[in-house]
Specification:
Elements: H1 3-7, H2 13-35, H3 44-56, H4 61-68, H5 72-84, E1 88-93, E2 96-104, H6 106-130, H7 133-151
Antiparallel strand pairs: 1-2
Helix pairs in contact: 2-6, 3-5, 4-5
Length: 152
C-alpha cells in the first residue's frame, strides 16, 4: 500500500479528498499571503524567529534554537540581525544572570502587524471582488468547520 493510502485507510473518500484539497489550497493561500507584504528584506529564518517570539513570548537563544530545530549559532546570528533592525531586544534573565532573554520590541510588533494587515487586506479585497454574498457566507461556514477541526 502506498503511504497516502495507508494514511487515509478507514477514511471515506470524501474525507480524504477534502483533506487533500484543504492542504493544497492552504499552501497556495500562505504563499500568496506572503507575496502581499514587504518582508523588509528578512529571510524566512529571521521571519520565523520573529514570529515565534511574537507568538510564544520571550525566550533564550538556546530555547529558540531547540524550537526552530537549528543550531544555537544560527539563531544567535538571526537574533543579532533582528536586534540591529530594532525588531527584537535582549534583557537579562531574572532567574539566571548568565542568560539573556530575547523579546519582540514595539517596532517588531508593528512590523508583524503591518504584514498581517497587508495580507488580510489583499484577501478581503479578493473575496469582495471574486465571491458572491452566498460564497462569502460559505467561506465563513468553512472557516468555522476548519477551526473546529483544528481545535479538536
Amino acid at each position: 500500500m502506498h503511504e497516502i493510502e495507508q494514511a487515509t485507510e478507514g477514511v471515506s473518500e470524501t474525507a480524504a479528498r477534502a483533506a487533500h484539497e484543504v492542504r493544497v489550497v492552504y499552501s497556495r493561500l500562505r504563499r500568496r499571503l506572503r507575496e502581499t507584504y514587504d518582508r523588509g528584506d528578512l529571510t524566512p529564518s529571521q521571519t520565523s524567529v520573529l514570529s515565534r517570539l511574537d507568538k510564544d513570548g520571550e525566550a533564550s537563544v538556546g530555547d529558540l534554537a531547540v524550537a526552530e530545530g537549528v543550531r544555537h549559532q544560527s539563531v544567535a546570528s538571526i537574533v543579532g540581525v533582528l536586534v540591529e533592525r530594532g525588531l527584537v531586544a535582549r534583557r537579562p534573565d531574572p532567574d539566571d544572570g548568565r542568560r539573556q532573554l530575547v523579546y519582540v520590541t514595539d517596532g517588531g510588533h508593528t512590523f508583524l502587524e503591518d504584514r498581517r494587515r497587508a495580507g488580510e487586506g489583499w484577501l478581503a479585497r479578493a473575496v469582495e471582488d471574486q465571491c458572491t454574498e452566498e460564497e462569502r457566507r460559505t467561506l465563513l461556514a468553512a472557516a468555522a468547520v476548519l477551526d473546529r477541526i483544528v481545535r479538536s
